Amino acid sequence: MSKRISITAFIAGLSIIAIVGFKPISHAISEMVKPAPVEQNVMGVIYQQRAAEYRALCFQAYNIAMHKIDDAAKGKKKNIKLAVITDLDETAVDNSGYAVRCFEEGHGYTDDSWNKWCNDAVADSVPGSVTFFKYAEKKGVTIFYVSNRSNAALAKTMEKMKRLGFPQVSEDHFKLKTTTSSKEERRREIAKNYKIVALLGDNLVDMDAAFDKAPENVRQHAADSLRMAWGDRYIVFPNATYGDWENALYMDYRKAHPEVKSISLDSIYAIRVRALKKY
User: Is residue 54 packed enough to be buried (19+ CB in 10 Å), middle (13-18) or exposed (0-12)?
Assistant: First the structure.
């Protein structure tokens, strides 16, 4: 999961759902000068916290991962070591409370607020996660928590995960961000000594380098070309609130305006409205 969270969606902005539901897109864009609460992102967080469907999707993903472990264990040779690679945030650990905190405090994602959240160690577990990882350990599978959290957050992250009941919570099982956000090198290092049973994540960069900093059309093509891997080697978790899928929407704007360090709310919401498909 990429931690450059665009929780700016929580700050005053446009309610695209409300506007687009009743007015043409061109009108919606012209009315973006006067921001209103961003309902669709609030609903994404409520979905994560309240929807039974969200829980069901998480259980479904972990059930598939359990079957993968069972299948791998059956035909395993004695000298082969099995491992699962998992993302942390929104795959094993639920940080929806951080989004709520940002909303209440009136700001988007910042390194300082995110680091404080990590050090407060108040996140919850994703439904089904602790049960699955305990099952993996029981089956003799090594767990690697591959995350783009900073090493400065490792101690508090481990402390919280131990309290939640996660197994194999020791430094050698954590591969955190160093000089790059890409996880490919970390995955390759693990694969040198282990047979990877499955890779788990809410963001496709958690599983395959084809999605690293890729624009929307490249991401979609890669997802299509890997169609047989989903639910097999790659197991995806729901996250409707942030991710590289959203960042990809802004790539053309960033290329056209390299001088802009931070995209304005008006521009963000204009891009979002234009991204909607009309049928």
Answer: buried
Answer whether CATH 2.60.220.30 is correct for domain 37-275: no
Provide CB contacts within 8 A for 163, sequence distance 6+: 121
Distance CA 91, CA 206 (A): 10
Q: What are phi and psi of 199, to 5 degrees?
A: -120, 130
pLDDT in tens, 18-61: 334 434 444 444 444 434 344 557 899 999 999 999 999 999 99
The span from the CA of 85 to the CA of 12, in Å, is: 37
Do 38 and 241 touch, CB atoms closer than 8 A? no
State how beta strands 93-94 and 124-125 pair: antiparallel
pLDDT tens for 70-95 read: 999 997 888 999 999 999 999 999 99
Phi, psi of 93 (to 5 degrees): -115, 135
Question: Where do the structural domains in the chain lie, given as residue ranges?
Answer: 37-275
Cα–Cα distance between 184 and 168 in angstroms, integer? 22
pTM assigned to the model: 0.86
